[in-house]
Amino acid sequence: MADDQLFMRESLRAMLEKTAFVKKIYEAENGQKAMELMAENAVDVALLDIRMPVVDGFEVIEYVHKLKLSTRIIALTAFDEEAMILNLMRMGISGILFKKTTHMQEIYTAIITVLEGKHFYNEKVSIVLHSKPDGIHHPPRIKLTAREFEIIVLLCHGNGTKDIAEKLFLSEYTIEDYRKEIIKKTNTKNTYELIHYALSNGIVTL
Q1: Which of 9, 10, 17, 127 has the least CB density, counted as fewest CB within 10 Å?
Q2: What CA–CA distance (Å, rounded) separates 144 from 155?
Q3: What does residue 55 show for φ and ψ, rounded to 5 degrees?
Q4: pTM beyond 0.90, yes or no
């Protein structure tokens, strides 16, 4: 399990240690540590936070695929926007859990489901995949970090800098820095062009 919040890791450990099918638990506080653990150990399932310091969850997923590891990934995210769901599914993960709404039984079910070689889709994920069946077949053309992706989604949904700062518990100055970096990455000139780029290239679907 990889999550930068100690409380989250401790809660997951306390819960999973009570189950008969969990034999060994590894903890990582960032994506870099998660990659090191998976390279050194045979990990069956990774409960992977998407937004982490040093290396985020997106890069860890790419790393697992690059090394062709057998690890099945269940993404943990506090961001349940449709665009995030589709972006994670494009990356070929086994399941998605939303931090805001998940509970003990759902985590158990998700782990067992992916260990059986299946995908775990809760109701929200199933609805998105049903409404946008072609959405997972159009990968973004640029590489965004988890935080940048969150911000570009919020921009596309009409949120201003102040709104985004409040939603993500960051300063407006920090959001502006991210926005400038995303504009640089997408080679656009302003927020309007950025939104158009994101929508026309399938980074965000509305």
Answers
A1: 17
A2: 14
A3: -135, 130
A4: no
Give me 48's structure tokens: 């992977």
- Which amino acid, one-letter code, is at 151? I
DSSP the chain: -B-S-HHHHHHHHHHHTT-TT------BSSHHHHHHHHHHS--SEEEEESS-SSS-HHHHHHHHHHTT---EEEEEES---HHHHHHHHHTT-SEEEETTT--HHHHHHHHHHHHTT--B--HHHHHHHHH-TTGGGS--SS---HHHHHHHHHHHTT--HHHHHHHHT--HHHHHHHHHHHHHHHT-SSHHHHHHHHHHTTSS--
**Distant-in-sequence, close-in-space partners of 14: CB < 8 Å, separation ≥ 6:** none
> What are the tokens at 166?
């409040």
Taking residues 91-101, report their average pLDDT: 93
Residue 131 or 192, more confident = 192
